[in-house]
Design goal:
mainly alpha, Four Helix Bundle (Hemerythrin (Met), subunit A), 4 helices, binds fe (ii) ion
Length: 137
């Protein structure tokens, strides 16, 4: 999976190089899920996508929170709580995936994950993270 910052749509770019690069990874996972839904046979395995997401949330959220601490961001507690909710949701999704028994369920699950990441991009990145990044400029 290569990282190309220019692939992150304009509306999700927040003007912070490292944060934008990390958000690009989430966007790439979203695209991997789309590919899985259109042709699961040639797509990246769902287990790999979920494993990448699990690693991503931990390192990305800790990075953002570290930046909030060093910049004395006033809304850090509320933002950290939203990260906590997203992390719990990722854990729940992984549990759900591990409990799937029928192969036919996998595409439905990939669609559900796409909706989840889409909401994450729109609600958290385009709004909550944007508010924080504005304070860094
Ligand atoms: Fe965030």
């Amino acid at each position: 999976m290569s990282i190309r910052l220019e692939l992150l749509p304009e509306e999700y770019r927040l003007g912070h190089l490292f944060i934008d690069s990390q958000h690009e990874i989430l966007f790439q996972l979203f695209r991997e899920l789309s590919e899985y839904c259109s042709n699961a046979e040639y797509a990246l395995d769902l287990e790999i996508i979920l494993g990448s997401l699990e690693t991503y949330v931990d390192s990305h959220f800790r990075y953002e929170e570290g930046l909030m601490e060093t910049s004395s961001y006033k809304d850090i507690d509320a933002h950290r709580e939203l990260h906590h909710v997203l992390e719990k949701q990722v854990v729940e999704k992984i549990k759900k995936f591990n409990a799937l028994s029928d192969r036919d369920d996998l595409v439905g699950f990939a669609r559900e994950m796409q909706e989840f990441l889409s909401k994450w991009l729109q609600d958290h990145i385009a709004e909550t993270d944007r508010k924080f990044c504005h304070t860094l400029q």
